Amino acid sequence: MNIKVITPGELFQKMNAQEKVILLDVRAEEKYHDFHIVGSNVDSYNIHKEEIFNLEETENLANESLPKDKEIIVTCTTGNSATKCANVLSAHNYNVAVLEGGITAWTEYLKTK
């Protein structure tokens, strides 16, 4: 399954253009609270990757607040778990993209701004 990938630069442009951005951070709650992507036009969700992996068995996400009609950008620390989660969500008809390189790439990108 081919999942769309968005670069940190493309995400930055969306945020600067005041586009509505929906971010799903699949890292552990502690890591999310330490740092996550924020912005006035960003809706941020923190659902642990295990809950998304369990979708394969349960068919139901406990957090039903994720919209199916809008693009959801999935991120984690480096992008590996986000890609796995995006594949599961895509199979359940969510419109997903993965932040290339995850939070690590995002923080590196911000250093150039």
TrEMBL record:
Q: Which domain of life is it from?
A: Bacteria
Coiled-coil residues are none
Q: Pfam families from the xrefs?
A: Rhodanese (PF00581)
Per the database record, which ranges form the Rhodanese domain? 17-108
Record's PROSITE patterns?
Answer: RHODANESE_3
SMART domains on file: RHOD
Q: Which PANTHER family match?
A: FAD-DEPENDENT OXIDOREDUCTASE, PYRIDINE NUCLEOTIDE-DISULPHIDE OXIDOREDUCTASE
Mind telling me what this protein is named?
Rhodanese-like domain-containing protein
